[in-house]
Amino acid sequence: MIALVLGAAFILVVLAYNIFQESKYRKQLRDQFGHANKDALLDSSVNSVRDGGSIATKSSAQTAPLQKDESTAFVAVSTPESVVQQTVPQQPVTESVHTAQPVQDNPNPNQEVAENQPIGQTQPLNKKPKEFLSPAQLQSLSRTAPVKGRKPLLDVRDMSKQPLPWFDARFDYLAYIALYEPKELHAMPRLSSRSRFRLVGCTMDDRYQVAEPIPSVYYQGFVVGLQAISRNGLVTKEELMQFAEQANKFAEQMDGLLLLTDMDAFLNVAQPLDDLCARVDQTIAIHLVSRSNVSGMELRNSVEKLGFELAHDGAFYFNDTNGEPLFSIVTLDNSPFTGSLLANQNYRGFSMLFDIVHIPNGEKCFDQFMDMAVKLSSQLGLDLVNDKVEELSTEWLREVRRYVIDRQKEMKRVDIMPGGELAKRLFS
Questions:
Q1: Alpha carbon separation from 273 to 12, 170, 196, 220, 234 (Å, rounded)
Q2: Which of 246, 270, 294 is the last residue of a domain?
Q3: Which of 268, 271, 346 is nearest to 89 (CA)?
Q4: Which terminal residue of the chain has fewer beta carbons within 10 Å of its beta carbon, N or C?
Q5: What pLDDT is attached to residue 190?
Q6: Closest of 350, 339, 326 to residue 418, by C-alpha
Q7: Which domain holds residue 403?
Q8: Digit-coded pLDDT (tens) for 219-276
């Protein structure tokens, strides 16, 4: 009896010690992950990359489908012509004219315009605007007096109707500039903004092309487009005002006539698209962890056998047949992998990332992604867990797979193909 009691006591002590070690192990992993959110889709979060790469959460496990009236807020863009032929309201424009003689600068132009009525009238691009604001009302943008007795080389209204494949009317805010005389582009304009812009020029043979400062190439007009939606979010009206002011200065330097897109109408179109982008811009993370350690050399050999390559940013990438990255592997604490560290240190595991918006054919690619995760788990003796260090279940995987498919369907409804050119622009 004494032996049985001592044996039972010994077993209880071992079990208690194992429970303590398991709890300590989970806490260490949570510390390495840097957060302890529940994982995607089962009352948990997914990694949002909308904020530039940091970990963010979503409060709801299920995302409601698009409402019937919500889909009408977007414009299908399958060909350049559809930008002009779209039936929903496009980007109306506002005319701003100037001469080489600027008037007195407004010390606070943004404030003055914000207090005035909205710039321009709500008219589609393919219809002639009925009314423009007076030069005095546009002074905060143009800072100039109207030109008399001079005719530009191009009609800015006709420029606004051109189907330009470099721009998308839903998220590119456009400024049109028609020159009075042919000019070379000696230097690219300096448009300071957190958003990217493109400059397209119309040459003397009426061809539109990406404008570059090339000697002996003369332009008769320019279109400047500010990309208003990115992973930084939607630009504010104040930022559009700043861009409009800078575009006007460029027009002034080039001696041309300026036509601006209506800001309020543009933001009304861009806002629902930005909401959709924020909703679909998600990264699915699966963590492969070891109860002890795995050597860096063994880790590298295993992932490279599956086709992953170590990039200069310290992550492993698996590329498609076109050389575009599909999946990535990063450390648990987001520190970079390097050749020297992999050769000399051990790791507790790593994370595999699936970026929904940048991967075409999400259903097929997610199955491939999971096959790779299972193979690596088997080869390296690692556990597949979520952010709570909970072992992945079959139900979890089904929910994640369904989530990926649903988000990519939302993108396709508005003609933004996952992994396509528009997706690369919006989610960068």
A1: 59, 8, 18, 33, 9
A2: 270
A3: 268
A4: N
A5: 82
A6: 326
A7: 31-67+281-426
A8: 999 999 999 999 889 999 999 999 998 999 999 899 999 999 899 999 999 999 999 9
